[in-house]
């Protein structure tokens, strides 16, 4: 029987996939910011007024959903300015470089990697570091020698190794404690590792006729063929 819903993966980098439930949920995450001009009729939407016609005065501090911040952001008109969330600032990069595995990414932001890549849509002097930390790590691109980015990239690498080790050593066990501190991307990686382990165990016991390639590997191969044809 065919499934009624086929999960759609999130977008890559600064582009969102609006068919992805993960990206829709990520777009609700809030950014700290400031109103650089008066914002008419937005007070209720941002929880700063009671009437539908209420406006937000210029200079007001804001907590803006990502989708609205991207819509209002205009470098020429200066409607709003967006600040860097603390989890992406230099102080936290120092914590990551000391021991990446101690950080509860799900508590700090369940879409740490995806949300971080969306920050590149806004002007910020730390964007090069964020790009190296988030975008290049998740897409597997080349690592450029930009200030603290090498230590930050090691954050993803260190956590990835531990995630895959955990997923391969937890067979028929309660894994809720193992995934509690992971962001959504890391949880997806953990699930991929668990599925691979379970499929192998079934094959080893003679409960499966063959081992098939992961859908991630298949999609990667299709993407490379498309790039060659293009």
From TrEMBL:
Keyword Nucleus listed: yes
UniProt cross-references to SUPFAM superfamilies, sorted A to Z: GINS helical bundle-like, PriA/YqbF domain
Transmembrane segments: none
Cellular component, GO, one term: GINS complex
GINS subunit domain ranges (all copies): 89-203
Keywords annotated in UniProt: DNA replication, Nucleus
InterPro entries cross-referenced by the UniProt entry: GINS_A, GINS_bundle-like_dom_sf, GINS_Psf3, GINS_Psf3_sf, PSF3_N
One GO-annotated biological process of the protein: mitotic DNA replication initiation
Domain annotation DNA replication complex GINS protein PSF3 N-terminal: ranges: 20-72
Cellular localization per UniProt: Nucleus
Keyword Chloroplast: no
One Pfam family, short name: Sld5
Oligomeric form and interacting partners: Component of the GINS complex.
Protein task: Required for correct functioning of the GINS complex, a complex that plays an essential role in the initiation of DNA replication, and progression of DNA replication forks. GINS complex is a core component of CDC45-MCM-GINS (CMG) helicase, the molecular machine that unwinds template DNA during replication, and around which the replisome is built.
Family the entry assigns: Belongs to the GINS3/PSF3 family.
PANTHER family: DNA REPLICATION COMPLEX GINS PROTEIN PSF3
Protein's name in the database: DNA replication complex GINS protein PSF3
Gene expressing this chain: Gins3
């Amino acid at each position: 029987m065919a499934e009624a819903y086929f999960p759609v993966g999130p977008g890559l980098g600064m582009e969102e996939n609006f068919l992805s439930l993960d990206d829709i949920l990520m777009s609700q995450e809030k950014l700290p910011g400031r109103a650089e001009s008066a914002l008419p009729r937005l007070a209720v939407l941002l929880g700063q007024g009671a009437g539908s016609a209420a406006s937000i005065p210029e200079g007001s501090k804001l907590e803006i959903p990502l989708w609205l911040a991207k819509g209002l952001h205009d470098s020429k008109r200066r409607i709003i300015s967006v600040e860097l969330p603390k989890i992406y600032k230099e102080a936290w990069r120092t914590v990551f470089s000391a021991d990446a595995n101690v950080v509860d990414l799900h508590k700090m932001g369940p879409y740490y990697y995806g949300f971080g890549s969306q920050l590149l849509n806004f002007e910020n002097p730390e964007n090069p570091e964020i790009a190296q930390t988030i975008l290049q790590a998740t897409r597997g691109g080349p690592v450029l020698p930009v200030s603290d980015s090498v230590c930050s990239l090691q954050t993803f690498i260190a956590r990835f190794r531990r995630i895959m080790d955990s997923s391969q050593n937890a067979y028929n066990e309660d894994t809720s404690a193992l995934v509690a501190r992971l962001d959504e991307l890391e949880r997806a990686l953990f699930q991929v590792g668990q599925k691979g382990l379970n499929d192998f165990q079934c094959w080893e016991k003679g409960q499966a006729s063959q081992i098939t390639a992961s859908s991630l590997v298949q999609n990667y191969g299709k993407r490379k063929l498309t790039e060659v044809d293009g």
